[in-house]
């Protein structure tokens, strides 16, 4: 699955999974069958019974049916009774027991036939913090006392109902942190008629003994759910951040590409605009370019301006004698002379085939002829091409002052007429509209 697809669908299936898990946690947990660990009946289990007759007491104990865990405690009248009961060993050495802390309940099915009103159900927990291997009594004694009439026949004891016996706490020096029942290393579980057994026979059969609890403790279960939420949330953020980082990179790449493309297009547009405004051969402005430039110039017409219309003399002859390519070179040569002899603010254009127009700015009427004749002289005095094949070129110029009350066309028309005059009087000369300045 691509990162993009994952990032797009992830929130949906994460939410779905989280909701499902939460539902399972809240509802499903109640319906999971409990975990049951059966201690009895178990024919291999080590079981024994004990009375106090061997130590001078008045209670004798005997098996009624060992297989069924049925035994009898008989009280002899003239001796004191201390204890009599049944033990199930969960450890061979009484040191390594079993951890039953994850269970909730101890369930017992028992048959009691006794006039003794109470019965003790007890456990021993071995902890090296307070127990020693050579003293069986040092294992914590955890007890639950029940009325015999409450055994009917099943007795369910919550582990939280067990208490550490006071006599055990009093007879051992136990630090405070160990005075609560511990179930992490149970070595023994038993049932005991206790002391002061009434005279007569007291029978007890332990039919079944089971531990029961949840497969997963509720606390742990909810921790898992929270864990899944956290892992899911973290995964979500991770995938989202990878996705958006990639997108950002892609956008950046695209932005850079667009930038360079934009620059390319802008350069192309500049080139095209330039090409549209310039004569390809000479690089001078063409008619269109000059007209555009004039638009900006007319906005600032608070200075004297002159128009110089220049035409190469007998250019046809040059073309005919030297060829069209040489003719082109002459045009380029003239363009260079015009550029070299005009100022930065002036406009120089190729106006027709061999015709050029100079729009000279900020020029007094008295200087127009000087400029026109200077250009004419430069053209005539500079020989084109190599010394082996020299070519003398001349040009005629018609020059006028662009009067403030005139349009460009009107002024140009006057320049054209003067150029015509210059051609008429023999070419290679400049004619202006300023009196007494004819060359
Ligand atoms: N090589 C070249 N020749 C051109 C170009 N444009 C126009 N011409 C030529 O310029 C010549 C102009 O000839 P005409 O109009 O008869 O003028 P002219 O020969 O210069 O004679 P006058 O102007 O009367 O002195 C023509 O032969 C055109 O073909 C160009 O771009 N390159």
Automatic annotation (TrEMBL):
<dbReference type="InterPro" id="IPR029787">
    <property type="entry name" value="Nucleotide_cyclase"/>
</dbReference>
<protein>
    <recommendedName>
        <fullName>diguanylate cyclase</fullName>
        <ecNumber>2.7.7.65</ecNumber>
    </recommendedName>
</protein>
<dbReference type="InterPro" id="IPR050469">
    <property type="entry name" value="Diguanylate_Cyclase"/>
</dbReference>
<dbReference type="Pfam" id="PF00990">
    <property type="entry name" value="GGDEF"/>
</dbReference>
<dbReference type="InterPro" id="IPR043128">
    <property type="entry name" value="Rev_trsase/Diguanyl_cyclase"/>
</dbReference>
<keyword id="KW-1133">Transmembrane helix</keyword>
<keyword id="KW-0812">Transmembrane</keyword>
<keyword id="KW-0472">Membrane</keyword>
<feature type="domain" description="GGDEF">
    <location>
        <begin position="303"/>
        <end position="435"/>
    </location>
</feature>
<dbReference type="InterPro" id="IPR000160">
    <property type="entry name" value="GGDEF_dom"/>
</dbReference>
<feature type="transmembrane region" description="Helical">
    <location>
        <begin position="221"/>
        <end position="245"/>
    </location>
</feature>
């Amino acid at each position: 699955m691509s990162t993009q697809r994952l990032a797009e669908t992830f929130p949906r299936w994460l939410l779905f999974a989280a909701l499902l898990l939460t539902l399972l946690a809240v509802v499903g947990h109640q319906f999971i069958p409990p975990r049951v660990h059966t201690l009895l009946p178990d024919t291999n289990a080590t079981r024994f019974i004990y009375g106090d007759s061997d130590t001078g007491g008045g209670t004798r104990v005997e098996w009624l049916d060992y297989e069924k865990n049925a035994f009898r405690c008989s009280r002899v009248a003239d001796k004191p009774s201390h204890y009599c009961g049944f033990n199930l060993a969960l450890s061979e050495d009484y040191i390594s027991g079993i951890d039953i802390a994850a269970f909730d309940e101890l369930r017992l099915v028992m048959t009691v036939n006794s006039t003794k009103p109470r019965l003790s159900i007890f456990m021993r927990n071995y902890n090296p913090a307070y127990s020693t291997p050579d003293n069986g009594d040092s294992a914590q004694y955890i007890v639950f006392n029940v009325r015999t009439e409450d055994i009917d026949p099943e007795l369910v004891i919550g582990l939280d109902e067990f208490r550490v016996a006071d006599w055990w706490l009093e007879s051992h020096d136990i630090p405070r942190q160990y005075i609560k029942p511990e179930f992490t290393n149970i070595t023994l579980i038993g049932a005991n008629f206790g002391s002061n057994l009434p005279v007569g026979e007291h029978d007890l059969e332990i039919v079944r003994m089971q531990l029961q609890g949840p497969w997963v403790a509720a606390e742990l279960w909810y921790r898992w759910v929270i864990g899944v939420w956290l892992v899911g949330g973290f995964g979500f953020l991770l995938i989202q951040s990878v996705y958006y980082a990639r997108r950002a990179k892609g956008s950046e790449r695209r932005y850079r590409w667009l930038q360079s493309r934009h620059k390319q297009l802008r350069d192309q547009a500049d080139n095209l605009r330039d090409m549209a405004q310039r004569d390809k051969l000479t690089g001078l402005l063409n008619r269109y370019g000059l007209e555009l430039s004039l638009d900006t110039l007319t906005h600032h017409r608070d200075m004297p301006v002159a128009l110089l219309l220049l035409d190469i003399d007998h250019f046809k002859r040059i073309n005919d004698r030297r060829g069209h390519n040489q003719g082109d070179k002459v045009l380029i040569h003239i363009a260079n002379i015009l550029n070299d002899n005009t100022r930065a603010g002036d406009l120089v254009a190729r106006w027709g085939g061999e015709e050029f127009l100079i729009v000279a700015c900020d020029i007094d009427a008295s200087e127009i002829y000087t400029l026109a004749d200077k250009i004419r002289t430069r053209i005539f005095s500079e020989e084109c091409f190599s010394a082996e094949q020299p070519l003398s070129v001349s040009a005629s110029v018609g020059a006028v002052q662009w009067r403030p009350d005139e349009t460009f066309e009107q002024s140009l028309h006057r320049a054209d007429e003067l150029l015509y005059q210059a051609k008429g009087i023999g070419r290679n000369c400049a004619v202006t509209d300023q009196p007494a300045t004819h060359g």
